[in-house]
Design a protein that fits this description.
This protein has about 220 residues and is α/β, with parallel strands linked by helices. It contains 10 helices and 10 strands. The strands form 2 sheets. The protein has a 6-stranded mixed sheet with strand order 1-2-3-5-7-10, with helices on both faces. Helix 5 runs antiparallel to helix 6 (about 150-155) and helix 5 (about 135-140) packs antiparallel against helix 10 (about 210-219).
């Protein structure tokens, strides 16, 4: 299972890499639990969330696992909520590097990041409503980032946002052409890391995300 989520710790940056490209980097309960533990025990000022693959950053929760029965579904939901709160409460600077498709619960990895360096082919959507489900964790997190009306539309309709749409809504910090993505991300992660002390202090003093509000919404 450790191979599905690679965690590499450096002096100032801990890199979390989703490594399940053959399954579109879908998140299993074990992956989310390990992810939450890593974020909760972060010992560097910066966490980077990346993914292997070319077309899908994260397809959300593993539907195959969820379909194994009520116990598996409940375990997955618990792990997703744990990861949500770990990201929301993290005092470090979280930098996400999304590309291609970002779906469902995978969107939490970008919504709850402080800096989102997006490849220009990003497509973000929350398709749960197609299965007559409402993504409550996503909605609770989106309300910290965008207007309630837009958060509702995204979750109630399953509409897709492009990279440019995400930038306009404040869900992406920068949109980077695909041919420049790897090099620019490396350079920008270094740039933000050099300024992590002041950015982490600003995050603590004037937080954008209120973890207690998210927890209250989730009951």
């Amino acid at each position: 299972m450790s191979d599905l989520l690679k965690i590499e710790q450096g002096e100032t940056v801990t890199r979390f890499t989703l490594n399940r490209p053959e399954k579109h980097n879908a998140l299993s309960a074990d992956m989310m639990t390990r992810f939450a533990e890593g974020i909760g025990n972060l010992s560097t000022p910066v966490a980077v969330i990346a993914a292997n693959g070319t077309r899908t950053f994260c397809a959300g929760a593993d539907l195959g696992e969820r379909g194994l029965g009520e116990d598996a579904a409940a375990r997955q939901t618990k792990a997703l909520l744990r990861l949500t709160m770990a990201l929301a409460r993290c005092p470090g600077l979280i930098i996400a590097l999304p590309f291609g498709r970002v779906m469902g619960g995978g969107g939490l990895l970008t919504i709850l990041s402080d800096i989102v360096l997006s490849r220009d082919d990003l497509r973000l959507n929350f398709p749960e409503i197609q299965f007559k489900l409402f993504p409550f964790a996503v909605y609770a997190a989106l309300l910290e980032r965008i207007s309630p009306s837009m958060a509702w539309q995204l979750c109630a309709s399953g509409m897709t946002l492009t990279a440019s749409d995400c930038f306009a809504q404040g869900l992406a910090s920068q949109v980077i052409p695909a041919q420049d993505f790897a090099g620019d991300c490396d350079r920008l992660v270094d740039w933000y890391s050099e300024r992590s002390e002041v950015l982490c202090k600003a995050k603590a003093d004037t937080p954008v995300i209120d973890a207690d509000r998210i927890a209250a919404r989730l009951g």
